[in-house]
Amino acid sequence: MQKKTLSAKLLASPHIVWSVLFIIAPLIMVAYYSFTNADGNFTLENIKALSDYKEVFLNSIWYGILATIICLVVAYPTAYFIARSKLRVQSTMIMLVMLPMWTSLLVRTYSIMSLIENTGIINTFLEKIGIGPLQMINTPGAVVLGMVYDFLPFMILPIYSVLTKLDNKLVEAAHDLGASKVTVLAKVILPLSRSGILSGITMVFVPSVSTFYISQKLGGGNFALVGEVIEGQFVTSNNFNLGAALSLVLMVLILICMAIMNHFSGDEEESGGGLMP
Amino acid sequence: MKKFASLLLALIVMLSFSVVAFAETSPLTDEELQAKYKELAGTSINVYNWGEYISDGSEGAMNVNEEFEKLTGIKVNYTTYDTNEAMYTKLKSGGAAYDIVIPSDYMIQRLINEGYLQKINFENIPNYKNIMDEYKDLYFDPQNEYSVPYNVGMVGVIYNKTMVKDPEKSWSLMWDKEYKGQILQFNNPRDGFATAMFMLGIDVNTQDEAEWQKAYRMLIEQKGVVQSYVSDEIFNKMESGSAAISSYYAGDYLLMKDNNPDLEFFYPEEGTNIFVDSICIPKSSQNKEAAELYINFLLSEEVALANAEYLYYATPNKTVIENEDYSLRDNEILYPQKEDMPKTQYYHNLDQETLGLMTTLWSELKIEGTSNTAVYIKLGTVAFIGLVAIIFNTVKKKKREKLYDV
Q1: Identical fold at B3-146+281-333 and B153-273+351-367?
Q2: Fewer CB atoms < 10 Å away: N or C end of chain B?
Q3: Using CA atoms, how far apart are residues B143 and B141, in angstroms rounded to an integer?
C-alpha cells in the first residue's frame, strides 16, 4: 500500500478535491456552527438545548431500525431468488428493482399518499368489499412503509451483488458433506453474504433516520422526526446553530450505530462485492 | 378554464398593441422605455419567486417571462422557493445574486431592517400608477421605496358542505370535537399559531411569551381532533374528501373549488391574516435597471390580468379590477364587499427570541402525545438483543480461535 505512483495520485485528485470541497468543508462548518452562537462566540448552549429533543432522536432511531429490519427481511429472499435465476432473467429483475428509483422520491411518496389516503384507492376498494375504510395514513406504520418502499432497492442491490459472486462450489461442497438446506443457508451463504447485508443496512438505516419528507407527508406532521426538527431550525427559525448541533449529534449517533454494526463484519476479509469497502 | 381560450385571443391581440398601451399610459416615458430596452437587450436578470406564482404558459395562459424576453431582449433566469424563510436563508447566505424577489410583508420588513434590499427607482416603473392606493404606504414600507405589491391574499376556513352543516363563522370550527380526525391544520408554525391566536383574541404579532404559551395550549388541545398538519398536500385531501375542515389561503380555495364544488369557505369573525407579496430588488442585484423594467412589465394591464386569471389571488392592480374581461372581478371571496370585509391583521416580523420560542413550541406540539416510555422500552430491547448478539459473536470467535490454535 506504500507505493503510490504519480499517476495514481493524479487519478485520485478529482475525488480528493471533491471530498474536501463538498464533504469535509461542510462538516467543519457544521461543527463550527454547533459550538458557536449567533454572534460567532463559543458556546455550549446548543448542545445543552439538545436534551429537549431526546424523544425525537430516539423515535427517529426506532423507526429507522424498524424500517431496516423489514427491508432486510424482504430484501434477502428477493436478492437470493434473483441471484439464483438465469442470467437474462436476472438483468430484467434487477431493472424492475431499480425502476422505482428512476422517479423522484417526492413523486413516489406522493403516490403512496394517494394510495393509502382515507378516501384513497385501497380504502375505496376495501369499502366496496365491505371491510370498511382503515386508518392507514398519518400512522407510524405509514411512515415505516414509506421508508421501506423508498429505500428497499438500496438493500436488495448490495446483497444481490454479493450473492452473484458467491462461489457455488462452496454450497455444493456443503451439500456433499451432508449439510441440510437450512444448515447451508445459516453456515455458508449467510456468513458469506455478510458484507452485502452490512452495506445494505447502512444504506437503508442512514437515510431512514434522517428523512424529513416521508414523515411529513405520510405521518401527517403528527410526530416530529429529527430530520423535520433540523429542517425547522434552519428554515423557520433561522437558528443555524441549533440546527447544526442537532445534525452533529445525529451524525454521531449514526456513527455509533455503524460502529456496532461493523463489529459483526468479522475480521476475515470476505470476498464481498458489496458497495461498501 | 374554457374562458381562457377566449381570454388568450384577447391577450394576443392586446399584446400586439402593448407598445401602444404603454404609449397611452405613459406618453412621456415610452420612448425612453424603448431606448432602455435597446440598451439592456442581451443582458439577463435572475428572478426568484414563489413556486406556481406566475402565469407560465400552461393551459393556454400567457407565458410572462417569455413575453418579457420577446419584448425587451433581456433574458430571465427564473427560480422558485416554497417559503419566505427559505428565500431569506438563500439571500442571507449570499450564494446567488438575485435581481427580483417577491417576499411577503413581514419578510420585507425583516429584509429592509437587515439591509438586504435596495431602493427602487420608480422613474423606470411608469405602471406603478396602476397600483391601488390602499396597497401603498403599507406598514413594512411606509415611504413606498423598496417594494411594489404583486398579490394580496387572506386566510380563511374551508369546509366540505356534505360533511359540515351550516357552521358558525368562527375559528372554533377547527376545534370542534364533532369533526375529530377530519380537520387539517397548517404545517408551518406562523400560520398554525395564528389560527389559535385569532380565536383567543391574541395579537398575532405579540412578543409576550405568556401569550404564545396560551396559544400553544390551545394547539395542544386541538391536536386530538387534527387529522394531519399539511402544506400543499391539502389540495389532495380536501378535493378528495379525505378531510372536512381546514384553513388555507383564499386563492388556493378557489383552485380546490374548481375540482370539488362541495367545498365552501368563510372568513372567521374573530379576524384573520391578510398578506401582501411585493416585488423587491435585493442589494446584490447586478442589473437593477433591467429588474425595474421587469417590475414595470408585471404591472402592465395585460400581464397583471394574465397573472390574476392564472393565480386566483387578489390583485392590487386597478386596471385589472376595472377590466370587464377579468373573470374573477365579482368574486366575493377575493374581493369581499365593504360590509363583508373581515377584520384583518398583517404579520409583522418577530424578533429572534420570539421566533426561537415559536419553533420550540411548535416542535413540542408535534412530539406531544408520543408516549416516551414506549420508545425507551423498544430501543432498550433492541440494545439488549444487540448486546447479546455481540457477546455471542465474540464467544464464537474466541472458540474458533482456540480450535485453530490447537
Answers
A1: yes
A2: C
A3: 6
The fold adopted by the segment(s) B153-273+351-367 is D-Maltodextrin-Binding Protein; domain 2 (3.40.190)
CA-based nearest residue in chain A for residue B357 = A237
Q: How far apart are CA B281 and CA B291, in angstroms?
A: 7
Residue of B nearest to A109 (CA): B233
Q: Is the CATH number 3.30.1360.170 carried by domain A54-228?
A: no
**B375 → closest Cβ in A58, A234, A264:** A58
Establish how many alpha carbons lie within 13 A of residue A261's alpha carbon, considering only the half-sphere containing its beta carbon.
20
Distances (CA, A) of B46 to B43, B99, B111, B307: 11, 5, 18, 19
Cell of B210: 405568556
What pLDDT, on the 0 to 100 scale, is given for residue B157? 96
Q: Do A236 and B229 touch (CB under 8 A)?
A: no
Q: Tell me the pLDDT tens digit for each residue of B160-201.
A: 999 999 999 999 999 999 999 899 999 889 999 999 999 999
Domain extent listing, chain B = 3-146+281-333, 153-273+351-367, 373-406
Contacts B86 to A, Cβ<8 Å: 235
Measured between beta carbons, the chain A residues lying within 8 angstroms of B392 are none
Chain A hits for B347, CB-CB cut-off 8 Å, are none
CB < 8 Å to B230, chain A: 220-221
Enter the ipTM.
0.74
Strand B344-345 relative to strand B272-280, pairing:
parallel
- Cα B150 to Cα B278: distance, rounded to the nearest angstrom: 5
Q: Which CATH number fits the domain B3-146+281-333, given the four candidates 1.10.3720.10, 1.10.10.10, 3.40.190.10, 1.10.630.10?
A: 3.40.190.10
